[in-house]
């Protein structure tokens, strides 16, 4: 997929994909609950490696028949687990925000049952953009998972609107309140990028640190751009720059931070 002349990743074409080698999770078998034909997400992040979102919505019920068929999810997962070496993790991720699937809660319950029956030692995780965590139906489902990676890239509302480009009605203050009220261990994942469209600015960092102090996550994973992005103005931060940011965050919040620098073998065009 070309975005402004920059090569973004093609959308996943199936409900089960990988295992992929993840910077965070090792060998991770992905479950893609999102549509395979176009990206529908509650965000339209300037760095999304799938390119710009075709549809940016908070409530995706009107697109229900484009989302993964739950029976196909169960069938494909069982088939994979019966025929292959178990992965390190099973992860809800894919082409958009997994929790926007209209039947997300039922799917989580069934996937947990399949895991318990076939590969009880494998952990189930999610990469979520945090926009639905205030919904009790979603947070009850998230609680059934072993690990929850929740996105928070910004602390400042203006930077958030420009960087994550949310659907109408989604506010950063709402997301921070919801994350602070989740009442279960979470890992916050944060991407920091420099450049005109980036989120690397003093005001954003100060507000972000305040947000982390309120949320009190188990840890923060701070990472840099690793792939071409739809917004061509973004620039990667070096591992040393991320290290300096991490030092400030740790000093202010005492939250543990893990840094994921850019993989050297992937060149940005
Ligand atoms: S939340 Fe994830 S899938 Fe959605 S636009 Fe942002 S990076 Fe892409």
Characterise the protein shown here.
With 269 residues, this protein is α/β, with parallel strands linked by helices. It has a domain at 2-189: Aldolase class I (TIM Barrel). The protein has helices at 70-83, 104-118, 136-143, 157-163, 172-180, 202-215, 239-253, and strands spanning 2-3, 6-7, 16-22, 26-32, 40-41, 55-56, 89-93, 123-128, 147-151, 187-191, 193-195, 219-223, 234-236, 256-260. The strands form 4 sheets. It has an 8-stranded mixed beta sheet. β7, α2 (104-118) and β8 (123-128) form a beta-alpha-beta unit. α2 (104-118) runs parallel beside α3 (136-143). The protein is globular, with a radius of gyration of 18 Å. It starts with a strand and ends in a 9-residue tail after the last strand. Residues 265-269 have low confidence and may be disordered.
What features would you highlight for this structure?
single chain, 269 residues, alpha/beta, TIM Barrel, eight-stranded mixed sheet, two-stranded antiparallel sheet, 7 helices, disordered C terminus, binds iron/sulfur cluster
